[in-house]
Design brief:
CATH class of the largest domain: Mainly Beta
Shape: globular
Order of helices and strands: EEEEHEEEEEEEEHEEEH
Mean pLDDT: 89
CATH architecture of the largest domain: Beta Barrel
Largest sheet: 8 strands, mixed
Number of helices: 3
Distance between the termini: 55 Å
CATH topology of the largest domain: OB fold (Dihydrolipoamide Acetyltransferase, E2P)
InterPro entries: NA-bd_OB-fold (IPR012340)
Radius of gyration: 19 Å
Strand content: 35-45%
Number of strands: 15
Structural class: mainly beta
Low-confidence stretches: none
Length: 253
């Protein structure tokens, strides 16, 4: 498809636009706390320049778009509705969010493009996480999944699952996956525990539970084996270290 634009060129005054995007985040499906009849899924898209935009699909549009817009895949998108971004959901400097509506056209990109993420994710070192304890300064972290615990019931209507991440710093870090994160991503990680999965946990809270640990929030995102050089290097480190040094994290009981 020709005559495409970049995300940064799309604003309220541009008509008939088409952008080639990559899906770099795809949330689980949530139900609105204000209206139980409204369900939604959030996305983050990036273009070839690395510009990112937040997007959302609701109800019937969510059902129609769900088979499409798969993580790390590329699509041509036209006609999403634009609105000024809530600062909570603003991505970078692009001032709009996109809403997928009945008038939005989504077409898979058939071109053979390299398997890589079109944006860079800055992850915090485990050794620096103490700076953000019990604050609302949410962090991105990356680690290999070394252990996955069973699901736990917490209270009446909540569940969670702890996983243990480790990286080259050799500091085991517990990440608590709450509710849908534990049920969906946690189950996937448990079923493939021997694969050396690399997880990028985005917008997670640093807590003092288990000493120093991490916890998902509603706005968090869990990327499993993202196609990035950093993730590939970490997985290679794990394979070599696990074979030659038998590095295993100490897991608290």
């Amino acid at each position: 498809m020709k005559n495409t634009m970049q995300i940064a060129q799309v604003d309220e005054n541009v008509k008939g636009w088409t952008v080639l995007i990559q899906v770099v985040e795809r949330s689980n499906i949530f139900v609105s706390q204000k209206d139980q009849s409204i369900s939604y899924r959030r996305f983050k898209f990036a273009d070839s320049e690395g510009t990112q935009v937040g997007a959302v699909a609701y109800n019937s549009n969510l059902r129609e778009s769900s088979p499409m817009l798969q993580l790390y895949k590329r699509y041509y998108i036209s006609g999403a509705a634009l609105k000024r971004a809530d600062p909570k959901y603003m991505v970078g400097s692009y001032p709009f969010t996109w809403t997928i509506t009945n008038h939005t056209l989504i077409q898979p990109c058939e071109d053979k493009l390299p398997e890589k993420l079109d944006c860079h994710i800055d992850c915090e070192k485990f050794g620096n996480l103490h700076r953000f304890v019990d604050t609302e300064d949410l962090q991105h972290v990356q680690g290999v999944v070394a252990h996955v615990f069973h699901m736990k019931d917490v209270g009446v209507d909540a569940v969670n699952r702890d996983i243990v991440l480790i990286n080259e710093e050799l500091v085991p870090m517990i990440l608590t996956l709450w509710n849908a994160f534990g049920e969906i991503e946690g189950s996937q990680l448990a079923e493939t525990i021997n694969a050396g999965n690399v997880v990028v946990a985005m917008r997670v809270k640093v807590t003092t539970f288990h000493g120093l640990s991490l916890s998902t929030r509603t706005e968090s995102s869990i990327l499993i084996n993202p196609p990035t050089p950093d993730a590939a290097a970490l997985k290679q480190w794990w394979v070599i270290s696990n074979c030659t040094c038998d590095i295993r994290p100490v897991v608290p009981l």
